[in-house]
Design goal:
By secondary structure, this protein is mainly beta. Helices cover 13% and strands 45% of the residues. The strands form 5 sheets. It has an 8-stranded antiparallel barrel. The protein has an 8-stranded antiparallel β-barrel with strand order 21-22-23-24-25-26-27-29. A hairpin with a 5-residue loop joins β6 and β7. The radius of gyration is 28 Å and the shape is globular.
């Protein structure tokens, strides 16, 4: 009897240990969960993308994690890259289109999945998966747009593959389709140039919901292999065919590029690290289709400081330069706004000439705010030697020397400045420009502690007297704001 009691006690003790182990590890949930059930708990997955700056602030990383949160837990080994949140077809709840990749296996394809609310089970479920042509996580952008004109938004996934080719994969929502097959692939393009959706205005009847609209074409630009000029391209137009339900090639034409010395061209487009970054490190002004320069819109590329500045509509936006990927005709850059962490910008830059580039900018906006500027188009390098001729409103202080409370300040006609004080020298780049009839000076320190604490300095210039007075200001959506700091006086040195 005593032995039986001891055995019973040992069994109870063993059962308690096993129960405690199951409760501590959470394995009990797996025993209780059936195959048809999905976990409701959301796990935030942070992708380890190449090129993300290791010193990103905690707030920026937290905001990014929140934007990558999925309604359900992804499978083990799946890393979330991008999440597109939109209203479900029924309009009763949100649905998510999630771009992800697998950590294991040789395949580097990017996949997308649809997570939507299932009324029958009363929970969010993962209902559909599909592969895309993209393979580079740091280049991925997921968006939705009515391409066909039937008011059913298509899911558009753009990015680059391992051959540094641009890719675009488009999925169209299928009316009255089974829940596990809501979309059909209608286009998948890969090219060594760029891919653009050619948007055109649709009728008022379409805008009012009375009639359908015409479908948008897709233009792909690749190398002209029959030409000796590297910049010559082939334009291929793809149009939607309602009969086949797929985008098909409609027209092919040749586009001649600029005639540039081919040895220099091959150096710039060699794909070697930093070569094209160094080439675009400068101030670039927008060039209208008529060939005139617009001083109200410019972009400043600062690869050494890993930032890009957009100035347009009297608003200055600063983006952290995150990743660079060489392409056949230039470079593909991904960036993030320093103030709005949910605003990301992908920039496809192509070489037009040694003094001009062409940009295609893709907004990846995860907040519903109005971003009205269009940055697509050609830009010309702002050289100090010819700025007076091109932009009479800008006054360049070429080879001017001043004394100030900072020290001895010299402006060089190369667009650089130096300040000598106490035996030390620091410097950076500068530009004079006009906003609302006011002359402004922007100074951008490069290198040293000052560059880390002062990314940019903008001053209002008062040149009414013999000396220049610089008043620190801030440029924003409300225009020019005086920061009420004591002025800096620059006295010319004869």
């Amino acid at each position: 009897m005593k032995k039986a009691f001891i055995g019973f006690s040992a069994g109870i003790l063993t059962a308690c240990v096993i129960l405690i182990f199951l409760l501590a590890t959470g394995l009990w949930k797996r025993f209780l969960q059936t195959d048809d059930e999905e976990q409701i708990r959301t796990r935030i997955i942070t992708p380890r993308e190449a090129g993300l700056t290791p010193d990103s602030s905690h707030l920026e990383q937290t905001a990014r994690d929140e934007n990558l949160a999925t309604k359900i837990t992804m499978e083990d080994g799946e890393i979330v890259i991008a999440v597109l949140v939109q209203e479900s077809e029924e309009g009763l709840a949100e649905e998510q289109i999630v771009a992800y990749r697998h950590t294991a296996g040789a395949s580097r394809e990017i996949y997308i999945t649809r997570i939507t609310f299932d009324e029958r089970s009363g929970r969010y479920r993962r209902m559909w998966n599909a592969s895309t042509a993209a393979m580079r996580p740091e280049t991925i952008s997921v968006s939705s747009q009515d391409l066909i004109g039937d008011r059913n938004n298509c899911v558009i996934v753009t990015g680059m593959n391992n051959r540094n080719e641009h890719t675009m994969t488009i999925f169209r929502r299928v009316p009255n389709a089974p829940a596990n097959q809501p979309f059909a692939k209608i286009a998948e393009l890969q090219i060594d140039g760029s891919i653009i959706i050619q948007e055109t205005a649709r009728s008022l009847a379409y805008q009012q919901g009375i009639a359908s609209g015409h479908s948008f074409n897709i233009a792909a630009y690749g190398q002209d292999s029959s030409s000796s000029n590297i910049l010559d391209q082939i334009e291929t137009i793809y149009s939607f065919n309602p009969s086949s339900g797929y985008y098909e090639r409609n027209n092919v034409s040749r586009i001649p590029g600029s005639q540039i010395e081919q040895r220099r061209l091959r150096e710039l487009l060699s794909g070697a690290p930093g070569v094209f970054e160094h080439f675009i490190s400068d101030l670039w002004y927008y060039v209208s289709p008529q060939g005139t320069i617009d001083a109200r819109q410019y972009i400043y590329f600062n690869p050494s400081g890993r930032e890009i500045i957009f100035f347009g509509d009297e608003t200055q936006q600063v983006f952290n330069w995150q990743n660079s990927t060489p392409t056949r005709y230039g470079i593909y850059i991904t960036s993030q706004n320093i103030s709005i962490s949910t605003l990301r910008r992908s920039i496809d830059i192509q070489l037009e000439s040694l003094d001009s580039i062409r940009l295609r900018v893709i907004e990846d906006l995860r907040l519903r705010i109005d971003v009205s500027e269009s940055w697509d188009g050609s830009y010309r390098r702002a050289r100090a030697a010819n700025l007076k001729e091109q932009l009479p409103s800008i006054k360049i202080a070429a080879n001017a020397l001043y004394d100030s409370s900072w020290g001895r300040l010299r402006f060089n006609d190369t667009g650089e400045y130096t300040i000598v004080a106490g035996g030390s020298t620091r410097g950076g780049r500068y530009v004079f420009f006009n906003v609302d009839g006011k002359e402004l000076l922007e100074m951008r320190p490069e290198g040293g502690a000052e560059a880390r604490t002062e990314a940019r300095m903008v001053f209002r210039v008062d040149s009414s007297g013999a000396a220049l007075s610089l008043y620190r200001v801030r440029l924003g959506t409300v225009g020019i704001q005086d920061m009420l700091e004591p002025p800096i006086t620059l006295t010319p040195v004869n």
